[in-house]
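Question (not urgent): is this output format expected?
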Amino acid sequence: MPHQTETQLRRERLIASLSETRADAFVVTARPNIRYLSGFASDHGALLLMPDRSLLFTDPRYDSQASEESDCEVKIATGSLMKELSTSIKRFRLNSVAFERNRISFEDYSRLKESTSGVRLKPATDLVEALRMVKSPAEIATIKASVRLNSAALEQTLRHFKRSMTETDLAAEVEYRMRRLGADGPAFETIVASGKRTALPHARPADFPIQDDELLLVDMGANVAGYASDMTRTHAVGKLDSKRKRMYRAVLESQLAAIDTVKPGVSCASVDRAARNTLRGFGMEKLFIHSTGHGVGLEIHERPRVGRKEMTKLEAGMVITIEPGVYQEGFGGVRIEDTVLVTAGGCEILTPTGKELVVL
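Got this back:
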């Protein structure tokens, strides 16, 4: 029997899960899911998956790329992908087809519905995303490479740090270093915030001079071979007062407590609770206004969510972030984040960057 590729095995697992929807085939339109199931990395494609056949639809611009990257049968559409896909649905006389209800555009759904009259379209949610939660050894190796590159980019950036820099200067330096080290680019828009702006969890870098004797927060991630990394470090620019130092200590202890609970069989809610309980001991739990973490892989935010009500049980092979933070408006905030691999015996912190408070 010929050796099966990783993408073939993924498609087989997906087709097996289709029994829940009682569909003859599955249409995939989400870009990361197409890459996961076919190997094709493009912003314009669609998949039609059947028990005995897998068709990848794209346009003439990607003819060569699709044939090189994918192990599916490639169909080149000169017009609408959905119209070409619908033609195949009718040709194979499929009675019912599942689709990604939470990932398909209204336009694509409308075209699919119009072109497949008589075919039952069945909405399905998170079928591919559920498979993606547990990473293969090859995926884990790529994520580790992304994490190492991300940390190296921060280390190089801080060597060039000057107090005359603005937040946008520092963010540009971070992304430049990523590219120089071989990243495809940032996994998301780099967050750099200083002073009172560190109280904004998703602050966009501004043309704002980095202040002395204040906090400086950098949240950054690299994309390497399609896989993301995610890390946040909060630094001191000069001397910090006791209140800011205590805030840092609270977040660090909260993060370590959450990491200490990570192991197979533990619910994501339990990890989140460990972080909040620690902050409660410092009287800061109300300043923690987001979830403790999230899955990371082909997308920077993917399942599972590490939050209060997320009852998903951790499994070996999951890669998640642990990133508690506290934010006080008008004063500042602290967040510390690592990328963490769930292992058979517990977890492995993939992020090599230290977590002691660094003074710049």
